[in-house]
Amino acid sequence: MQKKRKRFAVFGCNMTGLYRRNLCRELNEAAISRNVDLLYINSFGSIEGKNAHYGEYEFDMIDELDLSGFDGIIFDGEGYNVEGMEDKVIRKLRSTGCPVVSISSIVEGFYNAEFDDAGGMRAIVRHMLEDHKFTRIGFMAGIPEHPDAILRLAAFRDEMKKHGLPEDGIGVFFGDFWFNKGEEAAQFFLSRDEKPQAIVCANDYMAISLCLALKNRGMRVPDDVVITGYDGTAEGQLFIPHLTSATRERREIANKAMDLLMSEHPENFGRILITPKIIKGQSCGCMELDYRKEFDGINQSNENSRLYGRNIREAESISLSLNRVENIDDLKRIFEENSDNFGAYDSFFLMAHVDRHGNLSTDSDFDVPVGRFSPLIWVDKRKQYSLSGREFDYKSLLPESEEDRPHVYYLMSVHCPERNFGYAVVEMRDEEIFGEFYNLWLLGIATQLEVLLKTDRVNKLIGKLKDLGVKDGMTDMLNRRGFEIEARQALGNIKGRMNVCAMVIDMDGLKRINDAYGHHEGDEAIKAVADAIQHSCTHGEIAGRAGGDEFYVFATDYSKEKQDAFTKQLKDELAAYNEAADKPYSVFASCGCYLTETDANGRLEDFLRISDARMYEEKISKQGRR
After folding, report:
1. pTM to 2 decimals?
2. Which of 45, 77, 501, 611 fits as disulfide partner to 105, beta carbons 3.0 to 4.6 Å?
3. Domains, the chain, ranges and CATH?
């Protein structure tokens, strides 16, 4: 018997950024080489620092996830950018019984794979001091209260002090770990009494922004001033001059984390420390540009730009197509026909919440989720999954593949401000991770589901408004107006001549019930007669409440046999009600029928007038029941 393949989960946020895409590739390769299934629980988070509330809607899914089916979990907490979300995920992961390894932040109670960022920063500073013999060095720090900013600044100060120099060098400028503070930083450092020989930056993004700001002032890097970064990002190595930096060894941390989770005794691993390595680039003058490689890089960059432009145009076209979606089938068709701009994938599943009544979350009548999901979109390019109408829950999030190989899935919440619709799962081809255009797809799908939801609500509201004009609120039958509209339409549709039947039904003894037991009981008695009439309409009869305790019935293509069957069933229905209701009164009704032959020009009011007279004849004959 084949041994069950292990399954690991990876929790993180914003995994489509360049840094995390490369980390995911290393994790994927490490998992596949170890024959492990991998499920990423990815979050949108705050988008460009805005719309933080959108990320907050992902909390619900994290709360409900059942992690009992996983053999190990990797936690990448550094990417969470919505306040409280990282702590919420940590609380969730503490409840699982499997080992959890944190790979980007220290979490008490987890196994921690630590990057020795302090050691990496010291190595860069030593490179400036010992290899380049610089003494006038500035430092561009990150956000003052950020843990990484605090740690990296402390390492810079410590190394400067060890070499007998002022611990702040020629000055410390606090940036934002992003591209927004380059101009301010350049102004700060160039206005110092001592001009810097080198500026060490706490990450690559700030280093790039500083290089550009210095270039705007006519300064050359590294000829006039050396700039270094940190983190070894792809952007830093594509930038010219290529940044001298320190790289976090993603491959090493991926393999060590996998080895820990694969181990029968993870407690023996102790502290996992990953030492960053210095990348000596052109921004410090240690490496010269290889123009042949640069030309290749430029050509590749141009090709990437061309593909990116094509994908942008595809996204624009898809947005227009989504605007024409009228139902879920349209949504599925558009996805299948156009979903090639985020990378090659093998399968995609969109799962919708189900409520206790079986309604999907896309239905405006949806109540509250009960932890079950039903597929809305099911794309299986390799034909490796069996649908067979099954539902999923928070434990069986994924379909079972019929292919005996390791799988890598990415799961994300699909939601809008009004409702969490469920989740989407995509399985990319090989070790790949999806691009940003996948996020656009999910946002577009969520937006369109919200449009369909609101459209469904409006259509149902319109239907209710229409019903208000033709429906009786108490009995849910047609009211007098509705009855007349439908009966006249049926009469007008007669071809040639045909037997029709009109009936007037009046409840017996309503005043006695109202006087003795109250109007509430009188209303219950009226509803009982209405239900009996509706249950007796078995041959296409049109029935309505004319008002008070009086009802009309009309039918075309009728016969004496059908009339007798109707009146008998009406009496039987009322008798059954009286026996089951256990009321201190009984409910009866008188019925007058008029069966006649007519054509489309027959007058409904004449038929009802005759029926009404016959109904009163029957009522008068029931002395003692009035």
Report:
1. 0.70
2. 77
3. 7-114+343-438 (no CATH), 115-250+272-289 (3.40.50.2300), 480-621 (3.30.70.270)
